[in-house]
Amino acid sequence: MKVATAQEMKQIDRKAIDMYGIPGVVLMENAGTAIVKCLEKVNGSLTGKKVIVLAGKGNNGGDGFVIARHLANHGAKVKVFLFCSQQAIAGDAKVHLAILVQMGLDIMEISGERDWDRLKIALSFADYLVDALVGTGFHGRLSATLEQAVSFMNQSGKPIYAVDIPSGVQGNDGQVTTQAVKAAYTVTFGLPKPGLLIYPGADYAGKIIVDDIGVPTNLLTSGEIKQNVITALDVLERLPKRTASCHKGDMGWAFIVAGSEGFTGAAALAAQGALRSGAGKVTLGVGESIYSIAATKLTEVMVKSLPDKVGGVLTRDSLPAIQSFLAQADVLALGPGLGRDERTLSLVTELIQSVQLPLVIDADALYAVAKDPSVLGSSQALCIVTPHPGEMAALTGLTIEEIQSNRLAVARQYAAEWKSIVILKGAATIVAFPDGEVYINTTGNVGMATGGTGDVLTGMITAFIAQGCSSHDAAIIGVYLHGLAGDLLAENSPVGMTAGDLAQAIPAAVCGIYTGKKCE
Question: CA-based angle 58:64:69, to the nearest 5?
Fold first, then answer.
């Protein structure tokens, strides 16, 4: 599914009006109706229910006026609190406000202390609240008046239904400057907005419902929109297919170069991630001095001994053995537990520049790349880099705060600059392609915040490439299933989840995609 920025959604609305002749008042009517349908679906009959609509002066407020009218027609007891004068309402919103006035609905402008007292009392007796204060175009900081309104709503303890986006959440990046509405449900129009999917905004959205409000489908699926949310259907369409007669040779050969003294666990987790994701054959290349430790950890994975120095340190002396084996492999992954010895970093750089197979670069290999990220652009193969925010900071020179406050734009910028696929890990992992296309992931949970889960992801992506997926598809599949495996585990408890548990849960996650349900 496409994801539209505030500017893109504004253009879509304008095209629906100008090119297709759909009046703006009709789109507003459809938007308001969508909220009422949500209220009814969640709560049943609205007859006799007390609903407070808090409306601003823009189109979001206009949606609120439509909502108030339909709620009244459904037998609800509705009060509208308006955070501007009625004279300040213009455009399509003015049309719908006039209807409310003619109907004699209770509309109160907030202008003094007594009005705030009335709002507070009304909120205490309400069954549901509707947030129609500001929309997706909001950026920066709410006014003091709106901040107080948001505070009153959040403190009321009543279920809040947000119109398009919770007030206070920035539509394009999910940032919250001070306060934002903590919604139980957000009904968003046309397409989801990035701010609903990226944290912290995602924490305020509650359950997200997308309603097309009658916008022509071709406007919502346009290739000009470069943001997407990964869905189960996206993954199902991309998963490698197996025939009844296939054998291990048909399922690809993944080669992972990883590990050093004290860090064989990271290498083993990456190998297990690849194996559990369906690769026909997985070979883990490690230094000969740690070979016996790695081989003891793994049964089904083949472990290849590589020339090394003391401590399992791989150097350029390891290069011929690696290159020789690459003739049999379908993909190479570099990094988990590899170590940061300068000699190893030199090896990583040379492999990136010389290998023609698809490359997955993680962990210590990213540390090597950070010395000179331009090496990615000189690679003969398409690279997938999988940094967490700290690693991304080292690669880009940005602070973690700068990265986290604009994850979508940062991932997109550097995917283009490095001519690589960038997987910016974290809450709402971002997958960015060199052509500007980006995918936002929605699976995963706090239980995955533990050492080794990123190593498992590296193995998963490597396995899907080995099975014949493009690097683009493997990135999307791997990221979504990685999070889904974590979600299956979190059904019991997210606390105490380990990376090993995550690897074990991958087949159940794949099964859930194929069957359309979660499997034990």
Answer: 135
Give the Å distances, CA to CA, from 437 to 242, 432, 470.
28, 6, 15
Same domain, 174 and 253: no
Q: Is residue 502 part of a domain?
A: no
* Closest CA relative to residue 414, chosen from 370, 353, 364, 449: 370
Look at residues 190, 206, 263, 252 and name the one whose alpha carbon lies nearest to residue 12: 190
Residue type, 318: S
Residue 484's nearest CA partner among 456, 512, 515, 453 is 512
Distance CA 181, CA 186 (A): 10
pLDDT digits (tens, 9 = 90+) for 387-415: 999 999 999 999 999 999 999 999 999 99
DSSP secondary-structure letter at 58? S
Give this prediction's pTM: 0.95
Residues above pLDDT 70, as percent of the chain: 99
Give the pLDDT score at 493: 84
CB count, 10 Å around CB of 203? 14
Q: What is the CATH number of the domain that holds 191?
A: 3.40.50.10260
CB 136 within 8 A of CB 129: no
Q: Please state, in angstroms and rounded to a whole number, the distance separating the CA atoms of residues 31 and 67.
A: 8
Q: Are residues 298 and 444 in the same domain?
A: yes
Residues 6+ apart with CB under 8 A from 239: 477, 510, 513, 514
Q: What CATH number does residue 292 fall under?
A: 3.40.1190.20
79 three-class SS: strand
Q: Mark whether 281 and 340 lie in a shared domain.
A: yes
81 domain residue, yes or no: yes
User: Could you tell me the residue range of the domain that residue 126 belongs to?
Assistant: 2-225
Are 164 and 39 in a shared domain?
Answer: yes
Cα dist from 23 to 29, 219, 345, 348, 353, whole Å? 10, 16, 61, 59, 56
